[in-house]
Amino acid sequence: MIPACCFLCRLLRPPADALNALLPGGHIICPHFLAARSRLFTSFKAAANGLNCPVARRILALMKPERIPITLQQAVMQRLRDKLQQANLRLERNYPQPALHYKQRGTAAGTAWLQSWEIRLNPVLLLENQQAFIDEVVPHELAHLLVWKHFGRVAPHGKEWKWMMESVLGVPARRTHQFAIASVCSRAFPYRCRCQQHQLSVRRHNRVVRGESQYRCLYCGDPLQPGNFQES
Question: pTM value?
Answer without folding.
Answer: 0.60
